[in-house]
Amino acid sequence: MNDYYYHWTNVLYWEEHNPRNIAFKELVNAGNVSILKNTEIRNSLLEINASYDELFAVRKHLYDDYMIYLYAPFSTIFDYENGIKVWVNPDIKLDLSLEDVNSALQSKVIKNGFTLASFNNTDLKDKTVLILKTVKKTRSLIEKELKE
What we know:
The chain is mainly alpha-helical. The chain has helices at residues 2-12, 22-29, 39-75, 80-88, 98-106, 108-147.
C-alpha cells in the first residue's frame, strides 16, 4: 500500500521553473528590444519569451485540472499527511484502507485527472524541450557575436 501512497503523492507534487528574464522583459515592455542589433538573436529571445508565455498558460491549465480532478477528489479519500510521510520516507509502514484505494481507482473524476495530467505534462515536456533547444541556439549566437 505504501507504493500507492508514494505514486499518487509523486504525481500530485510538482516544482515550477520560473525563468529569470527580468532584464529582457524590461526591454520588451519599454519597447527597447531594437537595441539588440543582431536580428537573429533578438528574434530568438522573443521566441523564447513567447514560448514561456505558452508554457505558463498550459501549466496554469494543468494546475486548474489538478485542483478539479485530483486534489479535491483525493482529499475526500486519502490522508495527505500519510501520503507525504510515505513520499518522504518510502520505508515507513502505514495502513491504507483497501476501500479507499478502490474508491479512488473507480472514480471517473480521478481517472480523468490522471489522463489530463499525463496529456498536459507531455505537452509541457515538449514545450520545455523546444525552449531549451532555442536557448542553446541563442546562446551560440550570442557567443559568436561576442567573439566578433
